[in-house]
Each structure stands twice: as C-alpha cells, then as structure tokens.
Amino acid sequence: QVQLVESGGGLVQAGGSLRLSCAASGRTFSSYAMGWFRQAPGKEREFVAAIGGVLAAHTARYADSAKGRLTISRDNAKNTVYLQMNSLKPEDTAVYYCAASTNWRNPSDDRRTYDYWGQGTQVTVSS
Known about the structure:
Blueprint: E1 4-7, E2 10-13, E3 18-24, E4 33-39, E5 46-51, E6 60-62, E7 70-75, E8 80-85, E9 94-101, E10 116-117, E11 121-126
Parallel strand pairs: 2-11
Antiparallel strand pairs: 1-3, 3-8, 4-5, 4-9, 5-6, 7-8, 9-10, 9-11
C-alpha cells in the first residue's frame, strides 16, 4: 500500500510560480514511476508530467502544455516528488494529483499505469 499526500497548491497570479510536493510512503519509492495529472472543472483528468523509477534513470516526460514551464523532479531520500511550475497561466487552474506506479518503471502519460493516487491539491491562477 502506498499513500500519497500532495501539498503546495494555492492561488497565484498569472506569470507566477508554485512548487507542488507529493510525499509518498513505501520502502521502494525510488523504483516507482511517479506522475502528475490535473483536472479542471468539467474536464477529464489529463497528464502533466512524469518521472521514471531508478531503472529508467529517472527520465522525465511532459505534456506539450507543460514543456518549458513545468519541471518534475524527485528526492528519493525524502520519498518526495515535486512539480515546479513557472510562468503560470489561468488555463493551468485545476486540481493537481500525484500518482505512483509500483509496476511501471518508465514515465507514463497513461492514467491506467498508475495504481495509487493522492487526494489532490488545488491550483488557481488568476488573470
């Protein structure tokens, strides 16, 4: 069983920055592929960024909307994955979810590869 707890969301003006954190339980965190997804009101949950486990050399993968503005990283010593968000836009407003895949080493944009999810943290970007 893996528990994920997100933090760091909030209200920010357009052009601003936020850093989301996701603290995970589990003894083999470094082997998990980790992902960030988001869901805006009335829309489906969509992929934002993912980072592979240690056997995938912690390679990262991004949605086109995230490239150049958002950066995913992880600290295996702290069992934590981060999402640094810069140059935020109103369309980034959503609930952001952290996800863990205990069976998939590569960074994946497919929700079905993730077997644990956090409760979500709200990000609101005002214009």
